[in-house]
Design brief:
By secondary structure, this protein is mainly α. It has a domain of 28 residues. Helices cover 45% and strands 0% of the residues. α1 crosses α2.
């Protein structure tokens, strides 16, 4: 929306901390007859299998939200 209101690709790149070509790609992707929600949603892509099991992923996420001191680390954050 900012681009349509006169903000340049260079300014947008600075705002978001990306290259101008990334902004160009984003604008090209949004230049469609699809709804905004459809244009910004990625389709499923295959990829490498996860290295962590579901249980390990849950344990990791729980640990990340704990205080480091609870896991024996000498750090407040």
């Amino acid at each position: 929306m900012a681009y349509k209101n006169g903000v340049t690709q260079t300014e947008l790149a600075e705002w978001y901390g990306v290259q101008r070509r990334t902004i160009y790609s984003w604008l090209k992707r949004l230049d469609t007859d699809e709804s905004f929600e459809q244009a910004v949603t990625d389709t499923h892509r295959s990829g490498r299998n996860r290295k962590l099991s579901e249980e390990e992923q849950e344990q990791f996420e729980a640990t990340v939200h704990e205080s480091p001191e609870e896991d024996g680390l000498d750090a407040p954050a």
